[in-house]
Amino acid sequence: MIFNGKKLAIISLLFFLFILIISLFIYVFGSVFGEQNKKKNIKIGDDFVRFYSKHDWNYIKNTYPDELCTILSKYKNTKSKLYNYYLTKYTMSDFVPIRKAIKAINPNYTESEVTDATYEVLAYRHVIFHDSGSHKLDKNVEIIKRYESIIRKNAIKYNIPVEIPLAVMTWENSGDTSKMSYAACSGLGQMSAGAVKIAHDYAGKISKEFKEKANRAVSAEENKEFLIRADLFNIATRHKKMAKELNIADERIIPECNAEDSVIYLKTLMNSFENVPDLAISAYHNGTTNNADLMKALMKSYSYHSNMKDFINEKNINYLSLWKNQKVRNMMNGYLTMEGEITNSKNYYDALADESDIYPWKIFGAYSAFIDTPQGLADKIYKCRGTLIETETEGIEKFNSLKDVEKAVKEKILIKQKHKSGKKKIDVYMRPELAGFIAYMFNRLKTETNGKAGSLPATGFISEKYFSKENTRDDNLMGIAFDCDLKKFKYASKLRNLLHHEYLNDRIYLSSRGNVIHICLNPRFGLEFYEYAEKYKIISN
After folding, report:
1. How far apart are CA 342 and CA 361, in angstroms?
2. Minimal CA–CA distance to 232: which of 331, 295, 134, 158?
3. Average pLDDT over residues 484-491
4. Nearest CA to 491 among 538, 524, 530, 444?
5. What is the dihedral of CA 400, 402, 406, 407, to 10 degrees?
6. DSSP character for 467?
7. Does residue 354 contact residue 379 with C-beta atoms inside 8 Å?
8. Helix axes 432-448, 492-504, angle to 10 degrees
9. Which of 8, 49, 69, 180 is the most buried (most CB within 10 A)?
């Protein structure tokens, strides 16, 4: 084919336009994909969580990895400065190991559930990471690292995800292989004698099945193979023999025995609760019967009348389902008995205790310590070196003089209230969140006393007089804490019970000396407390 000059020019022009369009396509989409790659490769520093308050949310969303943005999806400045503090108190080095641990233990959790559980673990980080002398999480980790290969081998043998026993035993071992608890539990997994028997019985059934297969074997070689397997699962005899050889009366203090028993016991709990890891973990602490009763209470709230296993599968139930149901949570934290009655001195033996409600969060936190770097774990232990209140309020602004107070009032960080002190009324200062909480508690007490309570026996607010005291508390000077002297208060038992309920639900921190109770707000509920101040007309909304 012969092209004349005009046709050739047209073809050249079309070819040029084609190349131009392709180049533009590559440039535009290459930039988009390049930005996505850039987004995924950004290194996140410890200040990422604080970063959001200085930049537009859309900028953060478009700049940082999606998974980490999920953590911050609710992070927006609110009217509560106390809540804003809570939103910025954690760093990415706090979040990342915990999220990894939770995902590893609970692979079926949604992203939302991972985030919810992460915040619960962080809420109880002082319980988990604080070095109390008797509890040293870094020592616990050292012990499990030493016996990790044995735990892994048994997890494979009994077909259970290894993260579960590693997590449980990291929390339970107490930095030793032979410690016994007040509940007579011992060893790496703090096994009770009853739990050991359950483990032995479970393995014994497997051993018996292999013996029966050996009897039906069609060849000597097959018979031998089945007998070897039967012997492998005959752990009652094997563990007894090991204890005798070591001249030890209790097999539970032999790490190899305890590790195997703990893995098997967890396997039985997984079987009982439809292979839902966090339910099995909860049952490891509460016991199968108690957990089944908790499930019945939850089923009742759903008006579900079939069996528990169907309920778990049909409704996708996990531990968060129990935690988010207020009645069930009150049963788990001991405020209510397992019969659903308010716990008192006469029925307390029917209630769960020993922080049963937060046990899964402890386990997730312990596994995060196990997979963390040594420096990362050391940093978390250091952050929790002080008291609970010191740890959870570190960095909140204190007001050390009336000049500081007056400035804070102008900036609407503090509000001024009239408070009865003796026969006089004096000016006191507090954050609106604290004023809201006090109003909320007073109204609850009025309801409990059929309107008879006239006030709360509250003291310890910021005032001119307070600055002259020798022993001031930092959280009082932050405007988020007060004291209640119950010695002569007519409704002391009712108020104590109401405060205890708030404490069990992690809304406040409590400490006491004699009849004086010290109450400090948990910043996590700052926005809710602020809205109480609006509701009761303490501040305008």
Report:
1. 24
2. 158
3. 95
4. 444
5. -40
6. G
7. no
8. 130
9. 49
pTM, entire model = 0.86
Contact 163, 151 (CB under 8 A): no
Radius of gyration for the alpha carbons in the chain, expressed in angstroms and rounded: 30
Interval 139-186: pLDDT, tens: 999 999 999 999 999 999 999 999 999 999 999 998 988 888 888 999
Partners of 416 in beta bridges? 429
d(CA 15, CA 12): 5
Contact status, residue 161 vs residue 277, Cβ threshold 8 Å:
yes
Helix (H, G, I), strand (E, B) or coil at 159: coil
Q: Which helix (H) or strand (E) holds 402?
A: helix 402-410
Compute how many other C-beta atoms are within 10 angstroms of the C-beta atom of residue 443.
Answer: 14
Q: Would you state the structure tokens that stand for residue 185, as one six-digit string?
A: 């539990």
- Rounded to a whole number of angstroms, the distance between the first and last alpha carbons of the chain is 83
The percentage of residues in the chain with a pLDDT greater than 70, rounded to a whole number, is 86
Q: Which helix (H) or strand (E) holds 459?
A: strand 458-459
Per-residue model confidence as pLDDT tens digits over 207-239: 999 999 999 999 999 999 999 999 999 999 999
**Amino acid code (one letter) for 297:** A
Whose tokens are 């935690």? That residue is 323
pLDDT confidence of residue 66: 64
For residue 181, the model assigns a pLDDT of 87
CA distance 48 to 42: 11
Task: Please say whether the beta carbons of 105 and 278 come within 8 A.
Answer: yes
How many CA atoms are closer than 13 Å to the CA of 287, on its beta-carbon side? Answer: 11
**Amino acid in the structure at residue 417:** Q
